[in-house]
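Re: the request from the purification team.
They wanted to know what the chain is likely to look like in 3D before they choose a buffer screen. I agreed to run a prediction and write the result into the notebook, where they can find it.
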Amino acid sequence: MGDGNRRFAAIVLAAGGSRRMGRPKQLLPYAGRSLIEHAIQIAIDAGCGEVYAVVGAAANRIAPIVASTRAHVVENAHWQDGMAGSIRVGLDAADANGSIKEILFTLVDQPLVTSAALAKLLEAFDNNAVPAAASLYAGGPGVPAVFSRTLFPELRALRGAEGAKTVLARHRDRLIILPLPEAAIDVDRPADYESLLAQNHPRHQEVT
């Protein structure tokens, strides 16, 4: 994988079981590619030098698609235990040699988040001495978010259904927070996906 124009690494969290969707949301087509490919490409286009995609449910179908991109495949065998495990294995993979100083977390099911928005978040983090830079939507700070190494222990200490929002809330008075209302549009249910397609009219066919 070639280096991007930034020192940042990105982790795309994509291990969930898509219970409410009824089929793997990671494979749903959007804008001519699957949601997982879209999320990876957005991170690459934002300038992240290394991208890691954490897979779990339906990994036998999703991992080969990730492997065909510039991203690294990271499998969370215990994905059913909750988001915290995916954060931990993703961070451990990205920081395997202990050299990563900051990390960007994104979600596979926020397709309206653009590379320009991620680049703006990375730039805000770069330009301010803060432990994290987060997106503001749905009433609070959330992912996409950039974390400095000082917060890695807290991210690794998350358990069960806890996500990055738990760490962000703990440090809210020290964050850079940028409005990102499009991050509130996630794809959890068939109705969400149909609404997304109605807005964007991409050609679509489920990836197999």
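For the purification team: The chain has one domain: 9-200.
Please add any questions underneath this entry.
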